[in-house]
């Protein structure tokens, strides 16, 4: 592992890099020698309108601030311009090494009041946008046997949050998407991870109290994005939570559970009622452990366990 993580000769696409977290990632990558495609539609928080200024400002910051790095702007929406975002990277720099799916919007409303358009538009940007860009970059990564992909999830995706059924659905979908791509990308040295950040940006500035916002500089998120996308790091298939300088990994956990005899006379809702405490027990039992599944085979183990009776 090198002492300093350099991104010299690496080409990084960051969506939504005209502001907030994406801008900080772009500056950090460029500082370490990367060539960065600064994609941003430049719309409102709800995803309305567009403006080239957001991406242009960040490209100028890079060009004026970091002589080792380079940058090019792209103003496409991830919803319908993904192919062109990748072409921008190929035209300007000849390759794609890293994709950071970061672009995002919010259309919050309690579920009863959420319009179908509000639901769909949030899925379109976060989930379908990440899918389309990754799909366009994937063959280039596969061909060169190198790729690093970061998908941006959210606590609302992992745990749910009032008023964000659309956003939660999109963000948790990105976890499943990432876990599958991590498996498919493994033999091509394509690593795929999810980050679950909390940071100060226009997304959070009106909902988090100012004294907490002060601790949530987006600069405290960027180090993990750079670490996970470096060529010397092959961490994959993982989810990380990070905020205010705290970094941790999140994983699935299966309770130690309960095995029932597959007899319709005894395997009844009433039997579940009686044994419920054992089904949802998260302590190891003498014959069965709490487990942390990471692949389908770990699920299929359930059948093996049931056969034990
Ligand atoms: P932000 O609004 O500052 O940045 C999002 C950027 O995406 C904006 O610059 C916007 O113009 C751009 N964008 C929106 N739609 C686009 C589209 N269709 N095509 C291209 N660009 C588009 O917000 P942020 O807080 O920096 O959020 C970055 C990512 O992090 C988002 O995916 C967000 O959901 C996620 N996230 C943020 C937090 C947080 O605490 N800030 C928490 C969890 C997840």
From TrEMBL:
Superkingdom of origin organism: Eukaryota
Cell compartment(s), UniProt: Peroxisome
Membrane spanning residue stretches: none
Function of the protein: Second trifunctional enzyme acting on the beta-oxidation pathway for fatty acids, possessing hydratase-dehydrogenase-epimerase activities. Converts trans-2-enoyl-CoA via D-3-hydroxyacyl-CoA to 3-ketoacyl-CoA.
Family: Belongs to the short-chain dehydrogenases/reductases (SDR) family.
Subunit structure: Monomer.
Protein name as it appears in the record: Peroxisomal hydratase-dehydrogenase-epimerase
Taxonomic lineage from the root: Eukaryota, Fungi, Dikarya, Ascomycota, Saccharomycotina
Segment of the intact protein contained: 1 to 309 of 899
């Amino acid at each position: 592992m090198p002492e300093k993580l350099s991104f010299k000769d690496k080409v990084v696409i960051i969506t939504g890099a005209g502001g907030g977290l994406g801008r900080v990632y772009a500056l950090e990558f460029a500082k370490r020698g990367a060539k960065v495609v600064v994609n941003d539609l430049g719309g409102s928080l709800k995803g309305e309108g567009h403006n080239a200024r957001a991406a242009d400002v960040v490209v100028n910051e890079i060009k004026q601030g970091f002589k080792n790095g380079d940058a090019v702007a792209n103003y496409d929406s991830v919803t319908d311009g993904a192919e062109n975002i990748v072409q921008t990277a190929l035209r300007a720099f000849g390759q794609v090494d890293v994709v950071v799916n970061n672009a995002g919007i919010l259309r919050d409303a309690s579920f009863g009041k959420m319009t179908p358009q509000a639901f769909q538009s949030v899925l379109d940007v976060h989930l379908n946008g990440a899918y389309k860009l990754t799909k366009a970059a994937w063959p280039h990564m596969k061909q060169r046997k190198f790729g690093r992909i970061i998908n941006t999830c959210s606590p609302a995706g992992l745990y749910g949050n009032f008023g964000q059924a659309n956003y939660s659905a999109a963000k948790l979908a990105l976890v499943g998407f990432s876990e599958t791509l991590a498996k498919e990308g493994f033999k091509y040295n394509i690593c795929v991870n999810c980050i679950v950040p909390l940071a100060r940006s226009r997304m959070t500035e009106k909902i988090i109290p100012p004294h907490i916002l002060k601790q949530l500089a987006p600069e405290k998120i960027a180090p993990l994005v750079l670490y996970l996308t470096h060529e010397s790091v092959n961490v994959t298939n993982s989810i990380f939570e990070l905020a205010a300088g705290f970094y941790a990994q999140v994983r699935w956990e299966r309770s130690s559970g309960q095995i029932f005899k597959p007899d319709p006379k005894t395997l009844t809702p009433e039997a579940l009622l009686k044994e419920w405490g054992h089904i949802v027990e998260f302590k190891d039992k003498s014959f069965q452990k709490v487990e942390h599944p990471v692949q389908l085979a770990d699920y299929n183990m359930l059948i093996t366990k049931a056969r034990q009776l």
